[in-house]
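Good morning,

Attaching, inline, the backbone tokens for the sequence recovery test we're adding to the shared suite. The designed sequence is right after.
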């Protein structure tokens, strides 16, 4: 069997996140969110722990399937030291170690929220409980730690929640109060996620075995790494994200979309599906849920789609092209609305949206223009003719032959090449050419094998040339104001113009926000809260236009406005300026400061946390802060010198 036939017979189903060939592993993004806990209470675990100090209890039912670091779980265990694990046998002791850690005394496969040395029900104080809230498919498992005393600082009480969300597999941690017991273990605590082997972890900033403090009433002006009641969202990107039809992470930092790499000369590619995301009847086996484009932007026919089921849910999808993967470059597998009109949303919400894109990247196949081996160059004795001989690759599929093109350079080892001949016959691997100038010196010759593209198609629906992605992180960080997008040029039109559209996710109509002949665009995100989509469309000189590109989804989140009302402008770097927490999320904030006689002493229409009252006398003042889409904030301001 020739190498080509061997490769052609190889059945390769590439499953993201499966086995040693996985290229897109599990990661989590960590985002501060407003403090919004569920009601405390539920089934009390008092008396169920192995010990009130350093105790563990479980297992307890989740009530739904939950994906964590690529594995699916239906039950959990709780440690009195502030963690929820998906595996039994976790150590109950507290060591204050940073994560990740392979130390046997550090709990694994767990959510630490926060991991600190707590007492459970010491002298009747403190409760730990769990409850399921919400209805399918938006159920939550809420584990509440309520007024737990700290070890060796039993007068200090902490209250926090760990929330596991159905379907999207996100994790929320809400901390109402977390004191700091500096007399034990250095007062350190951990807020983060730890995998089952202790080799991977995702911890919140300044929250990984460090001293930090959270209080609902103290604005955190004294303690290190301190804040008022806070919320954190851990969002999976990878194996737990859903069906792999979107997202903003991939195998490298240059791409914002999932990337898979099937082998050359195969026709099949596989996708791993999030547990429970799709019912087994959600996919059209004729392939209408997808479109596949080659690197030239040409549509490739999908012959069939098959899937496997586990517990009546889709477990994996195999997509088969009608022709082989033959040519290097980025192909594009695009989610389109299928015959069932559900865009593969499933009844648990896979997160797939129409025009979400997967890059199918081939690196070890043929190039469209591939230099072939030059066997011989003979110069006739009369120095007037040159005979060139070359070979065709042994495993080359002749179906895709287009022509041979001959080049020569302007001197040995020069990178300046000139085309001087071609032949359209596959069997013609010899060419005789005359020396046009007998005084020419030695030079190099090259034969290039040009290949056909995959058949004929309508370039008007190409997403390869309108591949949209964020240009900076401001688009995705949940604030108002501008964000930049960029895309690859659409090559089917000579001078394309690009229309940019956006809309709320639940709206069916897109709204035009601008046009450009460039491939970058700054979009003003506006002020209305919600989740939005952006897409791009190319328009030709004759007013014909393409279908939409892939989507980008971004959020405008509601955030509390926190004003620090004490200023000590002594130049020590602490509290020298009038400060609004997370001001970057509130562009265009207006600030006015009044003295006790109602005279304006400072005013700004776009405050930047840059006012220091060094020229004002100490005393009591009054501030007014106006933030877009929020009620004005009023309050006293004290200047201490």
């Amino acid at each position: 069997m020739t190498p080509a036939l061997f490769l052609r017979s190889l059945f390769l189903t590439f499953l993201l996140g499966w086995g040693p060939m996985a290229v897109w592993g599990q990661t989590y993004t960590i985002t501060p969110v407003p403090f919004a806990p569920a009601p405390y209470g539920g089934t009390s675990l008092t008396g169920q722990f192995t010990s009130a100090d350093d105790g563990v209890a479980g297992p307890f039912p989740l009530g739904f399937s939950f994906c964590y670091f690529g594995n699916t779980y239906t039950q959990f265990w709780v440690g009195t030291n502030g963690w929820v694990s998906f595996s039994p046998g976790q150590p109950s002791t507290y060591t204050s170690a940073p994560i990740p850690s392979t130390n046997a005394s550090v709990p694994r496969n767990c959510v630490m929220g926060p991991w600190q040395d707590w007492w459970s029900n010491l002298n009747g104080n403190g409760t730990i409980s769990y409850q399921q809230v919400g209805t399918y498919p938006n159920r939550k498992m809420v584990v509440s730690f309520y007024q737990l005393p700290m070890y060796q600082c039993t007068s200090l009480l902490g209250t926090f929640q760990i929330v596991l969300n159905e379907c999207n597999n996100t994790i929320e941690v809400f901390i109402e109060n977390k004191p700091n017991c500096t007399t034990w273990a250095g007062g350190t605590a951990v807020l983060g996620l730890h995998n089952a082997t202790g080799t991977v972890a995702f911890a919140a900033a300044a929250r990984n075995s460090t001293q930090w403090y959270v209080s609902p009433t103290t604005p955190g002006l004294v303690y290190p790494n301190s804040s008022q009641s806070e919320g954190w969202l851990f969002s999976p990107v990878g194996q737990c994200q859903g069906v792999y039809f979107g997202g903003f992470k991939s195998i490298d930092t240059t791409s914002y979309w999932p990337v898979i790499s099937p082998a050359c000369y195969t026709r099949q590619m596989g996708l791993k599906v999030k547990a429970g995301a799709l019912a087994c009847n959600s996919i059209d086996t004729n392939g209408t849920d997808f479109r596949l484009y080659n690197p030239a932007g040409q549509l490739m026919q999908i012959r069939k789609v098959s899937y496997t089921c586990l517990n009546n849910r889709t477990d994996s999808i195999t997509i088969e092209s009608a022709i082989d993967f033959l040519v290097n470059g980025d192909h594009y597998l695009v989610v389109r609305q299928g015959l069932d009109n559900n865009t593969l949303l499933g009844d648990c919400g896979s997160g797939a949206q129409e025009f979400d894109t997967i890059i199918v990247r081939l690196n070890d196949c043929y190039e469209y223009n591939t230099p072939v081996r030059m066997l011989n160059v003979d110069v006739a004795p009369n120095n007037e003719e040159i005979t060139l001989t070359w070979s065709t690759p042994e495993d080359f599929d002749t179906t895709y032959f287009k022509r041979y093109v001959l080049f020569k350079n302007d001197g040995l080892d020069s990178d300046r090449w000139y085309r001087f001949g071609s032949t359209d016959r596959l069997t013609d691997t010899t060419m005789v050419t005359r020396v046009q100038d007998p005084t020419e010196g030695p030079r190099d010759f090259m034969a290039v094998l040009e290949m056909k593209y995959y058949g004929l198609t309508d370039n008007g629906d190409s997403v390869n040339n309108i591949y949209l992605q964020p240009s900076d992180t401001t688009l995705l960080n949940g604030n108002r104001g501008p964000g930049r997008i960029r895309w690859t040029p659409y090559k089917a039109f000579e001078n394309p113009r690009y229309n940019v559209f956006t809309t709320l996710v639940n709206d069916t109509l897109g709204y035009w926000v601008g046009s450009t002949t460039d491939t970058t665009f700054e979009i003003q995100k506006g002020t209305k809260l919600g989740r939005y989509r952006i897409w791009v469309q190319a328009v030709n000189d004759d007013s014909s236009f393409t279908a939409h590109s892939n989507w980008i989804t971004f959020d405008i989140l509601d955030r509390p406005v926190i004003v620090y009302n004490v200023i000590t402008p002594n130049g020590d770097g602490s509290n020298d300026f009038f400060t609004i927490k997370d001001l970057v999320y509130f562009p265009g904030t207006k600030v006015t400061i009044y003295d006790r006689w109602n005279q304006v002493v400072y005013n700004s229409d776009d405050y930047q946390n840059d006012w220091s009252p060094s020229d004002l006398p100490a005393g009591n003042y009054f501030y007014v802060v106006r933030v877009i889409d929020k009620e004005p904030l009023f309050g006293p301001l004290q200047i201490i010198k």
